[in-house]
Amino acid sequence: MEAQSTSRTAVVSSLNAAKRNSGKTYGQIAAETGLTNVYVAQLFKRQAQLSPETAPKLRSALPQLPEELLQEMMQPPCRSYDPNLIQDPTVYRLNEAVMHFGESIKEIINEEFGDGIMSAIDFYCSVDKVKGVDGKDRVVLTFDGKYLPYTEQGVRVYENDSNPTNLVTSYDGFIVPFAPLTPPLQLTPVFASFSDDIPAKISVSPSNSGGTSVSVSFLLTHFPTPQR
């Protein structure tokens, strides 16, 4: 992990040098690539992945960018952050703003959408500069995330060692009994679902102690990070 961190630091340093040498801002590069300015910054911090479709646009915007760095930007990054960032006044103030307004934001999301959250994967972020009514500069920070509702978890497994035939699984309002667990009966795994996003595989077999062994594994939906 330390070697990976060192390699990433070197790549980020080279990317930032290429940007500085170009004389362009994140906003200018964003305009030429069709991305948000924050996503461009994330690319140069190796916090986001450059898509093959956008790579030619970035190459055109920064022709001095070495090909090996461009290829590196197209690799899935290890997204992380330095905990010491909170010491920077800008980052600290952003964190303070989210914490201070967070409870109210959550309640409004619940009122407008229901019981759920804003995604930080299917998510767009941008920073804009505007003039206030007093003529002074103001920062407009936009968080645009997909709404993700919580789902009712409908899979339940009941075990009764004294009467294994009573073992059932309940999902989506239906009760499905398993066959009697008399050794050496081979049970077919049952596929149920917490929701459309989280299917569960339930395997039942006799345990070494003479009881019933239940194994549950989950198949999680992959949410790819979109280009911003």
From TrEMBL:
Catalysis performed (reactions): cyanate + hydrogencarbonate + 3 H(+) = NH4(+) + 2 CO2
Amino-acid biosynthesis is among the record's keywords: no
UniProt superkingdom: Eukaryota
The protein's name: Cyanate hydratase
Cyanate lyase C-terminal domain residues: 80-153
EC number: 4.2.1.104
Keyword hit for Lyase: yes
Molecular function terms, GO-annotated: cyanate hydratase activity; DNA binding
Assigned protein family: Belongs to the cyanase family.
Short name of one Pfam family: Cyanate_lyase
